[in-house]
Amino acid sequence: MSVENKDVGYATAVMSVPHDLDRRQDFTGTIEYTPEWETKTAISHILDIVLKPISFTRQLEEILDVVVSVSWLRAERKGAIFVTNARKELVLVVHHGLAPELLKRCATVPFGHCLCGKAAEQKRILFRDCVDHDHDIRFDTMKPHGHYNVPLLGNRGEVIGVIVLYLKHGHKPHREEKNFTEMLGRIISSMIFNRNLQLQSEINRARLRKAELEMLHKLVTASEFRDNETGEHIKRLSRYSAVIGRKIGLSEKDIELLTLAIPMHDIGKMGISDSILLKNGRLTPEEFSIMQQHTVIGASILSGSHPLMVASRQIAISHHEKWDGSGYPEGLSATDIPLAARIVALADVYDA
């Protein structure tokens, strides 16, 4: 059995609870669910939404849909969720049923401004049953209303957002409201806090990746000062390798990794003396043997477990191997040669 709210399209599953505690039956035989039961069910649905593999914004939208549909709350079908930015402003991220004029004026609200900003500044739930003097944002066509403004707090007590629930003008608080709004605030606070941690982790990974790339490109630039190989050759090598990669069905992610790794393919030449590296004439067998070591040197420079380092190392050490096993430094043949190195070797021959 389920109770379905057709306005928002979600179904609230009936929980197995004692009849005398969570539902009543009137003389007509109609079952009426108690506020306590509906609160538990709404919170249960909100927790289910938190676990859904959907976007953060969509999670907040679905949570807001559930909240404005709690019957005993007698809320208007309007609401909003704000998150805090670095300038101590509330930024509107999700709303339900708000007028265009309100969306425009409430897009960004400073702490201390209007009721939501005051809730953020004071770090406490603010309830109003009408549009009073604390409502700094007003306009002529605004309809009378009341609302709850629930601050969302992080682990250190910092304000990370505010949820706003619109109520009918003259709303009389229900005994269940304090419990419900506090639980709601804790759940959404936890969501936003965890989301912020996830975003910060992603930002840190991106910064680390950028730093690694910058370091590698600086190494490549340093090696180019000692070699006649031009930057244009490396660009062509990357383009040709990308074409080959697509032709044989590599994913775009693998192709991107390949093109990022290619500039490091000859980085080991940094360890070869100028007398050999820059020699105009033909290398002697002894000199050529030393030159071959640039592949091993490059692989040692590019040690590490990051996918880019792994791909760069494979290319650096194996791009002079040959299909028939006559290449160097290990004499690998056929499919024993890493695929990335085979692609680069083919592209290098084409651009020679």
What does this structure look like?
The protein is of the alpha+beta class and 352 residues long. The protein has two domains: 2-200, Beta-Lactamase; 226-351, Hypothetical protein af1432, CATH 1.10.3210. It is built from 13 helices and ten strands. The strands form three sheets. Strands 7-6-5-10-9-8 form a six-stranded antiparallel β-sheet. Helix 2 (35-50) packs antiparallel against helix 3, helix 7 crosses helix 13 and helix 12 crosses helix 13. The longest helix is centred in the middle third of the chain and has 48 residues, at 177-224. It is elongated, with a radius of gyration of 32 Å. The relative contact order is 0.07.
Key terms:
alpha+beta, 2 domains, disordered N terminus, Beta-Lactamase, six-stranded antiparallel beta sheet, Hypothetical protein af1432
Topology:
Layout: E1 2-5, E2 10-13, H1 19-22, E3 23-25, E4 31-33, H2 35-50, H3 56-67, E5 75-84, E6 89-96, H4 100-105, E7 108-110, H5 114-122, E8 126-128, E9 146-153, E10 159-167, H6 177-224, H7 231-247, H8 252-261, H9 274-277, H10 285-292, H11 294-301, H12 307-318, H13 339-351
Antiparallel strand pairs: 1-2, 3-4, 5-6, 5-10, 6-7, 8-9, 9-10
Tell me the CATH topology of the largest domain.
Answer: Beta-Lactamase
Radius of gyration: 32 Å
Largest sheet: 6 strands, antiparallel
The pLDDT mean sits at 82
Helix content: 40-55%
The largest beta-sheet arranges its strands as 7-6-5-10-9-8
* Principal-axis shape: elongated
Provide the CATH architecture of the largest domain.
2-Layer Sandwich
